Predict the structure of Polymerase/histidinol phosphatase N-terminal domain-containing protein.
Amino acid sequence: MIFEGKINLSESKTVKKIDFDVPRNASKLTVRFEYSPTSLGPVQNHVNLLFYDSLGRFMGRCDRGTKNFVVAPQASEAAVQTRPLPGRWTVFFENHYLFSDVHYRLEILCEGEEGFKTFKGEFHTHSRHSDGTMSVSELSMFLKEKGFDFFFLTDHSNISGWRELEELPGAVGFPGQEMNTFKGHALVLGGKTFVDWKDREGREKDFDEIVREAHAQNALIGVAHPFVMGEPACVGCKWTYEFDPFDADFVEVWNADLSRLELNYEAIGSWLKAVRSGKRVIATAGRDLHTKDERDWMANYVSARSLELMEVLWSIKFGRTYLSSIGEVNIDVSGNNVGETAKHDGNVFLRIENLPKSNLLVVTKKTVRSFNVYGTFEERIEVEEKEDLLTLLAFDEKERPILISNPIYLTRGE
């Protein structure tokens, strides 16, 4: 990618923004930046570049003395050491001082052959650091035995268990917390510090402020069991904030084991209404695990390049995940997977593999189609809208969910 242009003298002490896309297979991002004139005697045109990735994380700075800028596991000086995440990045030109018009050339080179894998995760767990019965190590081993690759430790309004996450014998553990407020429970995934729902004087914070605090540390925040029974059976459990739960990063559309039908059906229906109206809120499942339990539940299947916190958070944020109680399910919509965007010409081709006997609902913005399926299912699906979506829900003979997919987005084009 090459960007060339001019910064006018009148733009001194202003900021210019350019967005660019990093491909999904990138493992290295190299920047070459030059501008002229750079100086007139002792007076310099002073332009810096600051880079932010698709999660909004700061990735480094090209200063006047920067000769080499590389974001990669083996990064250059002035750049963050990490694989560049796919998606829309932003570079800010900070025009600190200009004595003349400036002509610039910015070249961005992305390289790599990263591939995606599927990881099974549990997003809602409790240990003895709150009201769970297992230690963090026991929780890790139990989930590994159940086939999970990773979990978020989301103890009630506590992060003391994080110190035990570094070396676990089973499933990989990531930091999280469940905020127990008087108006509902919220899950914070991937934070660096404790997020409180009240200030130092004990006053309740506005929930928008809580969201900003979570995002400031590159965490995701979502609502747990929004329609669960409230007082007096479960004080503070039902969501009663004015904040719309479907304006969060994600919402728990399935809580607990497969027996909790009615309240979870309300969550699924409300989530479908939200995404069909244009909200991009991600559906997740949470066992709300407190003790060893052999009952079946919905797991989160995440498509990520590696089992690292930021890779997993990226996949959750951009909907590269589906919920399943039957294991991995292969989903293909005209060559695209969950969370991706597929081109359509009025139709798309849907293929699903590994389904048991079930009732499959194929949902777009305006239609719901029902199919009885078993094994591999293939169907050409008519798309009515220029910009549309397709999401999948499958239920077994007892009307229990076996599959809930986040949307595949559809756009008309060649």
